[in-house]
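lol forgot to send this yesterday, sorry. struct tokens for the thing we talked abt
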């Protein structure tokens, strides 16, 4: 169902056989999103104060965020139409610049200070001003231009957080350079030099020190260097542009594998409320003429993703983007996110900067990789396997490398760090989200192999130590810590992909009396999922036919446990309410062993996520497992043998 009050043109199934969407659909969506903000504008249009939870930066900063992020979308719309848009759109944002940079105004923007949220928003304004220069900047009164320059000058010599924020300073000071204003060339060069430390190969950066892999790699680490190069021009880029183009090209070779056939991106990482900002690197590849993707594939991927959200009520009935994935869902957001934060989705509209007669808008759509065949993609840099199945259109991400923790220090006595559910899980997908409400995070059931202390406290997967990632196999280990026990226990996990299934092999160290538990994917829906379990298996199924199952293949012999904790055979279902971005009712199938004798053990399970019917009892016989102290050998029904 299309988002309420979003009036779209008729579909064109000749040009866009997969989505029906054309450039006109993108323009209509952008117009609705921009028009819907007007009732929330302050009188001078310098801020947009939207309803919703405030960020930790406060109401004024949130209002600036509303202006800056929506201006980025407006700039794509204005520049893409060569200024042939409703005059009031240009006037609103020009007036907002004059008001926001006037220190005497009640709507004045906060000054740019070290590591302030204003730095993030300034970068969007800088990009927007550059792209709309003939229609906004060049027509501003000289005094307004001077005030804008004065406001941006807070960047010069300033300090940012040492991650993607370095690039906000780069593009903002390059804008100052482009209008002949004072700036620091050293700031620009040092920011661009710094991201070289974070490039890890195969088109991948980490967002700052550590193993920080998520959508920021596309919508920040690849995006801003090439936006900078558009400002700097070929004569002032020091040869960097070609390097950035090559890296983005390599990144985009694998990027389509992150999207399901329904257009959904894999639900992993922080700031997911930015939604279709995930399309930024796809459009930038075409804009910078460095994409390996055919024009018809570029548009099919992008239109499919925007349509995916529109058909699920985004924007809402007011025309607003809310804090969540589909509906408002605050547990999946971060404290820095305010009511206008979702408008970083504006980056997903960069394609409007591409002329209407460009092949990405005129050639016929081509199918996504997952629409042609099952897909298996190993990404050694982030430590991920991507696994897509054509029959149900689901992409699953198997995580053996991204934990979003800073590097450990030499004096850390433990595996100190966070276990954010959007990074710590073994698996993610385009059809599911991790349980992220605080009480659900504390239980940590879904997509996690945990040791349970006698009081039920689970070990947490904080720092992920990658071991292997190639072909259809990836492995890693983490140090499991339990309350009252000074020792850390090594849990080594290997994922093997075969057909539509993931086989997980775990080598576990545990103290006597601990319990081993493994959860599958959490499925969520507006109605309570159906569930069933039996000896060595458990599964949950939503009303629309999405099934999650876990099946014991080896090492899950159990003792009887309390009925509240376990059903027959050491399997069970963990249910919750209001803990999942995909729906208010969620369920997780899990396996649970008996009390551990202490020492080392091996556990093998099959994890399924499918829109097809799943028969877990039959799956118990689908893989023969032979294990000894040195290895585990998996033999599948088709004769394939894999040694772990």
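and heres what i got for the seq, position by position
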């Amino acid at each position: 169902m299309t988002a309420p009050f979003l009036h779209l043109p008729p579909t064109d199934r000749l040009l866009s056989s997969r989505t029906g969407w054309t450039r006109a659909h993108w323009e209509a969506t952008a117009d609705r999103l921009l028009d819907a903000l007007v009732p929330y504008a302050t009188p001078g249009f310098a801020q947009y104060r939207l309803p919703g939870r405030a960020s930790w930066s406060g109401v004024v900063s949130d209002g600036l965020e509303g202006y800056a992020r929506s201006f980025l979308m407006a700039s794509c719309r204005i520049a893409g139409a060569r200024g042939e848009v409703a005059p009031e759109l240009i006037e609103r944002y020009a007036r907002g610049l004059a008001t926001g940079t006037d220190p005497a105004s009640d709507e004045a923007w906060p000054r740019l200070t070290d590591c302030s949220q204003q730095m993030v928003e300034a970068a969007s304004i800088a990009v927007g001003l550059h792209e709309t220069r003939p229609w906004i900047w060049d027509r501003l009164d000289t005094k307004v231009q001077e005030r804008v320059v004065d406001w941006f000058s807070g960047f010069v010599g300033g300090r940012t957080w040492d991650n993607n924020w370095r690039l906000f300073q780069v593009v903002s000071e390059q804008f100052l350079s482009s209008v002949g204003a004072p700036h620091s060339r050293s700031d620009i060069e040092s920011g661009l030099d710094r991201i070289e430390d974070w490039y890890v190969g195969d088109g991948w950066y980490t967002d700052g020190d550590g193993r920080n892999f998520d959508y920021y790699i596309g919508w920040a680490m690849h995006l801003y260097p090439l936006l900078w190069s558009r400002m700097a021009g070929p004569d002032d880029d020091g040869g960097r542009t070609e390097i950035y183009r090559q890296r983005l090209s390599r990144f985009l070779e694998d990027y389509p594998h992150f999207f399901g056939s329904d257009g959904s991106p894999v639900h992993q990482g922080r700031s997911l409320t930015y939604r279709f900002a995930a399309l930024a690197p796809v459009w930038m590849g075409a804009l910078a003429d460095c994409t390996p993707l055919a024009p018809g594939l570029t548009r099919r991927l992008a239109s499919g993703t925007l349509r995916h959200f529109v058909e699920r009520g985004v924007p809402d009935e007011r025309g607003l983007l809310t804090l969540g994935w589909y509906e408002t869902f605050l547990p999946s957001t971060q404290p820095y996110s305010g009511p206008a934060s979702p408008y970083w989705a504006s980056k997903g509209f960069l394609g409007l900067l591409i002329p209407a007669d460009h092949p990405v808008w005129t050639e016929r759509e081509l199918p996504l990789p997952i629409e042609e065949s099952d897909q298996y993609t190993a990404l050694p840099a982030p430590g991920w396997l991507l696994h897509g199945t054509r029959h149900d259109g689901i992409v699953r991400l198997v995580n053996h490398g991204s934990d979003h923790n800073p590097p450990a220090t030499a004096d850390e006595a433990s595996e100190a760090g966070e276990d954010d559910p959007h990074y710590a899980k073994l698996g993610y997908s385009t059809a599911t989200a991790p349980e992220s409400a605080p009480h659900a995070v504390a239980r940590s059931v879904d997509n996690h192999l945990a040791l349970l202390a006698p009081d039920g406290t689970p070990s947490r997967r904080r720092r992920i130590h990658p071991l292997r990632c190639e072909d259809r196999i990836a492995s890693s280990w983490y140090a499991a810590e339990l309350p009252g026990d000074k020792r850390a226990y090594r849990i080594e996990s290997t994922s093997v992909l075969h057909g539509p299934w993931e086989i997980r092999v775990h080598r576990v160290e545990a103290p006597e009396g601990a319990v081993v538990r493994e959860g599958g994917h959490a499925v969520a829906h507006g109605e309570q999922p159906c569930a069933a379990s039996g000896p060595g298996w458990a599964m949950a199924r939503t009303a629309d036919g999405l099934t999650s199952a876990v099946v014991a293949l080896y090492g899950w012999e159990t003792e009887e446990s309390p009925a509240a904790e376990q059903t027959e055979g050491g399997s069970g279902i963990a249910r919750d309410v209001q803990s999942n971005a995909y729906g208010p009712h969620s369920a997780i199938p899990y396996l649970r062993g008996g009390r551990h004798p202490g020492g080392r053990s091996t556990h093998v399970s099959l994890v399924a996520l499918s829109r097809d019917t799943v028969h877990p009892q039959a799956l118990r016989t689908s893989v023969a497992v032979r294990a000894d102290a040195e290895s585990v050998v998996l033999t599948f029904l088709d004769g394939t043998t894999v040694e772990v």
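Confidence is low (pLDDT under 50) at residues 558-569. anyway ping me if u want another try
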